[in-house]
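no rush on this but wanted to send it before i forget. what follows is a protein written twice so to speak, once as letters and once as structure tokens for the fold. mainly i need to know what kind of three dimensional shape the backbone takes. thanks a lot i owe you, the record is right below.
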Amino acid sequence: MRIDDLIVKIKDTKCPVCLGLDTAYEYLPEGFLKSGGNAFKKAAAGIFDFNKGIIDATCDLIPSVKVQVAYYEKYGVSGMQAFFDTIEYAKKKGLIAIADIKRNDIGATATAYANAYLDGTDIDGEDVLAFDADFITVNAYLGADGIKPFIDACKKTGKGLFCLVKTSNPSSGEFQDLTVNGKHLYELVGEKVSEWGKDLIGKYGFSSVGAVVGATYPKQASELRKLMPKSFFLIPGYGAQGASADDIVASFDKDGLGGIINSSRAILLAYRKDKYPNLSFDKAARQAVIDMREDILSSFNKNKINL
């Protein structure tokens, strides 16, 4: 099961960090700004080269990457090729690849999404997988019939999901914090996610069906950790969105397991920060990962969490 593989890599690296490859063309250093040719092609080529450099510089430090599809879709077909190539390259370097696609629909459409990213499409008897991610993010708010095709695919392949439960954005509470029958909506969704994953528990006690829980809401994360003890959390919000290492400890158990913390711009754009003067983009990214790991482990230590 991929959830077990992710946990092994977290334990081996002592680094519960997910590198977010939310890469935009304007993030690239001058040397990556391609000239000539189709605009989409030159942007996508530069983005993939940049991603490779970042992955090469950090793959021995981290367990996983998260590739946000919107940053690639906006560059058209060439961008989606870069999305595919980035996932393949990360896996080649031994990393767990999370496709951040936040897909969902119902019935046959949800099945088609699952075919694209998890279990493949049958074409004349050949099973072909479009985007070979280890995990994907999905929107749980359509209910069980929108999730079942993804869970069925995970049972078949051993891959995993992260379902949106309590997101990190400032307006998430407009709907997610509403009270329904005495509970917040995010709690009710969390209970459902926990139920959906009960038959997919790995050897470390965590399910392949996990949850997206924002670091920007530590109180809610603490509540969800108690409510969902077997659910692994994908944790956005650290760094550029304002959450600190102390904010994320509520999402982890005493062994430092239970979550993977995403950081994107703070790593991708580290070379532009005064903190890392005169470092190339890849060396600055590597140092940013090291600093993030030390920050997290320091907070773990203060809270008597032993990874």
